[in-house]
Amino acid sequence: MDLLYLMLAIFTVSFLANATPFTGVSYTLIATTLLIRFDASPPMVALAIVASGVGAAVSKNVMYGAGAAMERWLGRNRNVGLLRRFSGSRYFYLALVILAILPGFPVEDYMYFGSGAARVPLLKLNAYMLAAKLIKSAVEIPVELMGIGLVSDYLSFLGLTPFDLGIISSVAFVLLGLVIFKLDWESLLRRLGLLRGP
Fold first, then answer.
1. Tell me: the pLDDT tens digits for 130-151?
2. Rounded to whole angstroms, how far apart are CA atoms 192 and 195?
3. In this structure, what DSSP letter does residue 183 have?
4. Which of UniProt's keywords are assigned here (predicted)?
């Protein structure tokens, strides 16, 4: 596959996986699978990290726009109220970066979606999200390159390919994401003693 088409494919997968509300598709795993299939040389890995990170970060504008468009319906959601109250805090952006980097938990999708409904400033959100997604890609893609081959070999008796593993993980992350979105985060934070006041 030509370099330009491979990077475009990785960017597109990253964009679509992160722009679709309520999903936890592992775009780095798909990018890693494409690299394994076509070219996993160090320069290609570096380009894939940038393409996937930028695609994932830019796509969050879609999530933000969807949240803003649904502000009327989401206005009474307790999580949106929580985001609105804490969006001016430095801890808000620290939490955004940490959640965006954590593997397997698409919580930042819901935080960004809720930020649209809460009208959190978009430019600052984008700057933090770009940094977070580049870090995430830079960590996950090399680790997955090393691990995916070992896992595929280990499960070869089941006939599972790296692509099959990517689909299984994506479905699992989507289900996990739906469960996480349904949680009442304000009550949970209160029970843990991390949130006080009205």
1. 999 999 999 999 998 888 777 7
2. 8
3. S
4. Membrane, Transmembrane, Transmembrane helix
- Among all chains, which residue has been given the structure tokens 């609105």? 84
Between the alpha carbon of residue 82 and those of residues 5, 89, 117, 198, the distances in Å are 42, 12, 11, 10
Question: Which residue ranges make up each domain of the chain?
Answer: 3-191
CA 125 – CA 54 distance, rounded (Å): 14
pLDDT of amino acid 33: 82
Query: What are the backbone dihedrals phi and psi of residue 14, each rounded to the nearest 5 degrees, phi first?
Result: -65, -40
Rounded Cα gap, residues 180 and 19, in angstroms = 18
- Give the DSSP per-residue string, 10-50: HHHHHHHHHHSTT----HHHHHHHHHHHH---HHHHHHHHH
Is 73:113 a contact under the CB 8 Å cutoff?
no
Q: Is this model's pTM higher than 0.85 or not?
A: no
Q: What confidence score (pLDDT) does residue 75 get? A: 61
Helix (H, G, I), strand (E, B) or coil at 57: helix
pLDDT at 11: 96
Euclidean distance between CA atoms 178 and 193, whole angstroms: 25
Under 8 Å CB-to-CB from 39, ≥6 apart: which residues? 1, 6
Tokens 């990018």 sit on residue: 31
